[in-house]
Amino acid sequence: MTRRNVTQDGPTGRKSDVSRAIHEQFERIVNKYSSLQEAPFDYGCGVDLYPSEVHVVEVIGKHPDAHMAEIARILGVTRGAIQQTGDRLVKKGLVEKFMDENDRKKVYLELTAKGKAAFEGHEEYHAEESSRIEKLFEGLRPEGVALLKSLLDEVESFMDIYREQKLQRNSQ
User: Fold this and answer.
1) Average of per-residue pLDDT across 121-128
2) Domain containing 90 — which CATH number?
3) Residues 76 and 93 in one domain
């Protein structure tokens, strides 16, 4: 029986087969991640939070002096998105909203006790995820981890370009 190196030539000896298999696997991974982004989760505060909500909580926890426009800039979303998410977090009892006394245009969000519990629970969640990822790499040499990081950087760059091109086409 003749064996082919699938990683170099694909199952039929063509690199395009490997490219197609990688593309399909990448799409599966993205789809799985996207489904996680749609699901709410209780980070220990007694309230289910969507990823967009807990990421605002995270920014407030890490940058307590940031006003809403700064939170939007940090997350790369619109001020309107932060306004809507902030209003939901107020209703859920995780944040309180207040205006700057000297500049009424600046609106701040402050974590309540429940919001701080969500922030801490989210931090613990990230620590657990980081630990799981580190365990995946235990068997790799440093060069292998560096190669993986480099490949992920390339994929992210590719996705940034692809996203911009798609947004430009949609706006025309």
Assistant:
1) 96
2) 1.10.10.10
3) yes
Secondary structure letter of residue 67 according to DSSP: B
Pairing status of strand 41-42 against strand 95-99:
unpaired
Cα-only R_g, the chain: 21
Please say if the pLDDT value at position 99 is more than 90: yes
pLDDT band (50, 70, 90) for residue 171: confident
Q: What is the mean pLDDT of the chain?
A: 89
Which of 161, 57, 147, 157 has the alpha carbon at shortest distance from 110? 57
Q: What range defines the domain where residue 11 resides?
A: 1-38
Among 7-21, 99-113, 136-150, whose mean pLDDT is lowest? Answer: 7-21
> What is the Cα–Cα distance from 95 to 85, expressed in whole angstroms?
10
Q: Please give the Cα distance from 49 to 52 (Å, whole number).
A: 8
| Residue 109 belongs to some domain of the structure | yes
Instruction: State how far the alpha carbon of 53 is from the alpha carbons of 9, 18, 130, in Å.
Output: 45, 38, 21
Q: What is the model's pTM?
A: 0.71
Q: Judge whether 149 lies within some domain.
A: no
End-to-end Cα separation, the chain, in angstroms: 54
DSSP string, 34-99: HHHHTS-EE-SSSSEE-HHHHHHHHHHHH-TT-BHHHHHHHHT--HHHHHHHHHHHHHTTSEEEEE
Q: Are residues 9 and 63 in the same domain?
A: no
